[in-house]
């Protein structure tokens, strides 16, 4: 009971402080200048070798049979490429993930949505219902599920429906230089811009980045149960995977099948055939095997970039999240849809229910604080600051930027 009261008091105190900051920002903000008085936005070069192109332009951006492309305006700004694979009942999860990306990111986004044909009309309908103030921040492609090597039905049934599609992204998206892949059950709690910057931290051999599967080797799944090679001491989790696709396409990978190297596409099916009776987590296991033999190719980012229930359900074990807050939430094991981890479910529901045009503090942050008060009976619920820190920081920046823009425009009169 004492702990619940302390958590409640802390949340209420923080809410009061944020409300005061918000009111002060509104008090000092000058009226928004008319369009003619606003400074013109700077045009920036597009990121990567060849980002998404307009329909009919050729390359990966051109329409292919069964593929649909939609865009509200030309990609004049740098584009951050985000890929997701959605099959079965993953439509809503995918849309909420994309919504979190658009809400908090700064630069333009290019979505690559790989989906079963039956889901394409629903994706189009839902995305077109979003307000224009947000749809202008992204463009998207919808691709069919395709596998360039091996048995397509085998690949499609590997672990979860269509999950193996991520292995073929370097082959399909030939004109995309770099890409962030995420599972459908991911939520962004800070701008994608921040994880995108990690690409600049790659050394000359690194071509992908993932987080460890576990922080404590003695209780990690791979260290206890794996019957195949895996990366490092705990393996890596592929639910959030940053990739330099150009490097992946150009690299010869060491492997356990032949003495010489193989390209990414050449390696996939033989690797699956060799280990298919020993893998449990499908494509994630194959990625662990690949980077076991090519450890110099992997950049390992800290756990706050792929924060899962394992990081708090038995006690907090992600030091990065304790210090900086959760950056990307990964609600695996279906925790958004049951009551086993109500803290994760609360975040999902608040972002799902947030009206795009509403005030972030009033319609997202405060409801989230209220829901967290009902989760303090769980170990994850006892550390609300871990989940709230990055959201709070991001929203403060949004309002600070608005005040700076308004005041700057006012001084020019």
Overview of the structural elements:
This protein has 413 residues and is α/β, with parallel strands linked by helices. It has helices at 2-28, 91-104, 120-128, 132-135, 152-156, 169-172, 192-196, 221-225, 245-250, 264-275, 283-293, 319-324, 342-353, 360-372, 384-411, and strands at 68-71, 79-86, 108-115, 138-143, 178-182, 186-188, 208-212, 236-244, 298-300, 328-330. The strands form 2 sheets. An 8-stranded mixed β-sheet has the order 1-4-3-2-5-8-7-9, sandwiched between helices. Helix 2 (91-104) links the parallel strand 2 (79-86) and strand 3. The longest helix has 28 residues, at 384-411. The chain is globular, with a radius of gyration of 22 Å. 41% of the residues are buried.
Give helix % range. 25-40%
**Fraction in beta strands:** 5-15%
Sheet with most strands: strand arrangement: 1-4-3-2-5-8-7-9
Radius of gyration: 22 Å
Q: Which structural category fits the helices and strands? A: alpha/beta
Which short descriptors sum up this protein?
413 residues, alpha/beta, 8-stranded mixed beta sheet
Short description:
The chain has 413 residues and is an alpha/beta fold. It is 39% helix and 13% strand. The protein is built from 15 helices and ten strands.
Layout of helices and strands:
Blueprint: H1 2-28, E1 68-71, E2 79-86, H2 91-104, E3 108-115, H3 120-128, H4 132-135, E4 138-143, H5 152-156, H6 169-172, E5 178-182, E6 186-188, H7 192-196, E7 208-212, H8 221-225, E8 236-244, H9 245-250, H10 264-275, H11 283-293, E9 298-300, H12 319-324, E10 328-330, H13 342-353, H14 360-372, H15 384-411
Parallel strand pairs: 2-3, 2-5, 3-4, 7-9
Antiparallel strand pairs: 1-4, 5-8, 6-10, 7-8
Helix pairs in contact: 1-15, 13-14, 14-15
């Amino acid at each position: 009971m004492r702990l619940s009261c302390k958590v409640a008091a802390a949340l209420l105190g923080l809410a009061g402080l944020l409300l005061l900051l918000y009111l002060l920002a509104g008090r000092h903000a000058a009226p928004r200048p008319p369009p003619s008085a606003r400074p013109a936005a700077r045009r920036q070069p597009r990121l990567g070798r060849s980002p998404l192109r307009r329909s009919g332009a050729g390359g990966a951006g051109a329409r292919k049979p069964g593929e649909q492309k939609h865009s509200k305006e030309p990609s004049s700004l740098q584009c951050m490429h985000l890929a997701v694979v959605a099959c079965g009942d993953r439509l809503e999860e995918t849309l909420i993930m994309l919504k979190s990306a658009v809400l908090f990111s700064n630069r333009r986004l290019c979505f690559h949505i790989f989906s079963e044909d039956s889901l394409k009309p629903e994706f189009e309908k839902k995305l077109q219902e979003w307000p224009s103030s947000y749809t202008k921040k992204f463009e998207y492609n919808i691709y069919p599920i395709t596998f360039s090597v091996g048995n397509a039905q085998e690949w499609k049934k590997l672990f979860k429906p269509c999950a193996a599609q991520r292995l073929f992204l370097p082959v399909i998206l030939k004109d995309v230089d770099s890409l962030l892949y995420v599972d459908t059950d991911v939520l962004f709690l800070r701008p994608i811009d921040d994880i995108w910057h990690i690409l600049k931290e790659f050394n000359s051999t690194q071509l992908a980045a993932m987080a460890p599967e576990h922080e404590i080797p003695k209780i990690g799944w791979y260290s206890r149960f794996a019957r195949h090679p895996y990366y490092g001491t705990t393996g890596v989790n592929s639910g959030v995977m940053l990739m330099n696709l150009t490097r992946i396409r150009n690299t010869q990978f060491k492997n356990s099948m032949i003495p010489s190297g193989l390209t990414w596409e050449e390696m996939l099916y033989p690797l699956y055939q060799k280990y298919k009776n020993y893998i449990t987590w499908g494509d994630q296991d194959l990625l662990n095997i690949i980077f076991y033999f090519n450890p110099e190719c992997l950049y390992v980012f800290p756990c706050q970039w792929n924060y899962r229930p394992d990081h708090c359900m038995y006690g907090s074990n992600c030091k990065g999240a304790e210090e900086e807050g959760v950056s990307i939430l990964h609600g695996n094991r279906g925790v958004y849809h049951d009551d086993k981890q109500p803290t994760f479910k609360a975040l999902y529901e608040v972002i799902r229910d947030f009206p795009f045009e509403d005030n972030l503090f009033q319609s997202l942050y405060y409801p989230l604080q209220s829901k967290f008060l009902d989760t303090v009976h769980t170990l994850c619920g006892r550390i609300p600051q871990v989940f709230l820190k990055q959201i709070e920081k991001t929203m403060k920046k949004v309002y600070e930027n608005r005040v700076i823009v308004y005041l700057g425009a006012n001084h020019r009169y």
